[in-house]
Structure formats: C-alpha cells, structure tokens
C-alpha cells in the first residue's frame, strides 16, 4: 500500500507553481559591533513536487538557512513562505530528517515505536496510526524490522527509520539536512534512490542540504548554489537529466559531468 498516488516528474521551475518561496532572507546573530550576518538577501523558490538541493562551501550557512525555512529560528529580515503564508514556526505540512540519525532515534524504542513517536499529538484512530506506520515502513523497505531496535540495525537502516518517521507524518514538504553523509558510499546511493522514489510515489516537495556536489546533481531538478560570506545565492542551476535516474547510467552521462563541473566551479570560485 502506498501513502498516496501522486507521481510527479519535474524538469524545471517553470513547469510547476512555487510551493516554498524565499524572499530577501537574511539572518544575523547578535547585535551591535559583535553582530555576525550569516546569510544575506537570499531569494529563490521551490516548485510543487520538485527536488531541490542547496550546496555551498562548509560554514557558508546552509544549516542556518534550513532552520529558518523549517521555522526553528526566525529570520532577521526577509521572509520564507509556504503557499504565500509566512513561516513563523514549524509548519504543519513540513517534516525534517537530520544528518545524525543515531541521536534522532530513541534506542529504547522499537522501530515501530520510533516511527509512531511524532504521530502522538495527531490523535488519530489506532487503525489509522497502524496503517500510516506500516505504509511508511514498507516504503523504506523496513517492514521486516518493525520490532527491532535501532541499535540492532546498520547505519543505513537507521536512516531509513528516520525517513519512515517523517513519511508517517505525511508531510507535503520534506526537508533533509545532510541526510546521507554518515553512511558508506553504497548505502548512500541506495538512500538517494529512495529519496527519488519518495518523490515519485508520494508527490512530496523535497529540499536537501548537502555538501556532495555529485549527490546534488543526481537528485535535483534544480540546485541552489550558495557562496560568499555572508552567504548569498550565486546561481540556481536547472538540472536537465533524463528520468528515471540511475546510479550508473545517469552518472556516466556527459551532461552529468558538465553540470557537476559547473556547480563545483561556482563553489570554488573566489568570492
């Protein structure tokens, strides 16, 4: 059983209406002479059903931007909005998956109970709760591990649990902060493909913050490239690669290498 059937294929921003809009967004920590501006005057949009990656040098402010978009901290100026509504706190239609799955999962709870955790406040009937959990675990290939504990699973499986927990909440927008950085290369490829499958099966709008340029090009409909300090948008690159994408054939395409080189050169170019 699938959560919902909304297959989406997106080639560029012009094909779909904007879902998430960032307008002249800036974030400064502190005040007075010691104030530190981290991001400044960022403007970009994410279309409904798109997968968009945000890349940039280490320390450029990618995670700070994510926290502003997720309503975890306020912007100093400018706005982030969903469907025209300014984000002033964690949006009900959004879920987050963080990099450190080992800290986000409760080791004393089974996989099923970890997935159930964010659903407690929804006050759903027990039958619907179980249906959501089962569907989410099936979607990430962990139906067989429902009664195991996180410490009994590999790192990749633990991250799948974190993704399943987000899916069970049934978000319309999924934000992931370096979600595959802590796993081995083969597992990373599998989780990247899972991300694309989630978009196709569930019709979600997905935003991924990553340091990995190859990953950004492989996953994205568009890549938002951040640079300079305070961070600004250097460019938004349309990724025009054929679908469905494949870890071997897609990465072997000349266009993949060209777009990877384009994004990398922007990041490495002196400000």
UniProtKB/TrEMBL annotation:
InterPro entries in UniProt: AAA+_ATPase, ABC_transporter-like_ATP-bd, ABC_transporter-like_CS, ABC_transporter_ATP-bind, P-loop_NTPase
Gene Ontology molecular function, alphabetical: ATP binding; ATP hydrolysis activity
ABC transporter domain location: 20-253
Originating species: Arthrobacter crystallopoietes BAB-32
Protein name: ABC transporter ATP-binding protein
CDD domains found in the cross-reference section: ABC_NrtD_SsuB_transporters
Alphabetic keyword roster: ATP-binding, Nucleotide-binding, Transport
């Amino acid at each position: 059983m699938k959560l919902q059937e909304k297959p989406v294929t997106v080639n560029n921003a012009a094909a779909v209406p904007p879902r998430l809009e960032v307008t002249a967004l800036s974030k400064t920590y502190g005040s007075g002479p010691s104030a530190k501006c981290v991001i400044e005057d960022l403007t970009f949009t994410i279309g409904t059903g798109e997968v968009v990656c945000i890349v940039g040098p280490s320390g450029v402010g990618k995670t700070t931007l994510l926290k502003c978009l997720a309503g975890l901290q306020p912007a100093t100026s400018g706005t982030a909005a969903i469907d025209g509504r300014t984000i002033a706190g964690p949006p009900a239609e959004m879920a987050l998956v963080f990099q450190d799955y080992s800290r986000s999962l409760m080791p004393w709870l089974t996989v099923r109970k970890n997935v159930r955790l964010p659903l407690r406040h929804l006050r759903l009937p027990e039958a619907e709760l179980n249906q959501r959990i089962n569907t989410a675990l099936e979607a990430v290939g962990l139906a067989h591990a429902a009664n195991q504990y996180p410490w009994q699973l590999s790192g990749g499986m633990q991250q799948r649990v974190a993704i399943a927990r987000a899916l069970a909440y049934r978000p319309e927008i999924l934000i992931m902060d370096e979600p595959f950085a802590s796993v081995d290369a083969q597992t990373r490829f599998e989780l990247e493909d899972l991300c694309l499958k989630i978009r196709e099966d569930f019709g979600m709008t997905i935003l991924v913050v990553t340091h990995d340029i190859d990953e950004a090009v492989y996953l994205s409909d568009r890549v938002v490239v951040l640079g300079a300090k305070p961070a600004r948008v250097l460019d938004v690159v349309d990724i025009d690669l054929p679908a469905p994408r494949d870890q071997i054939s897609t990465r072997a395409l000349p266009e993949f290498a060209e777009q990877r080189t384009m994004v990398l050169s922007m990041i490495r170019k002196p400000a």
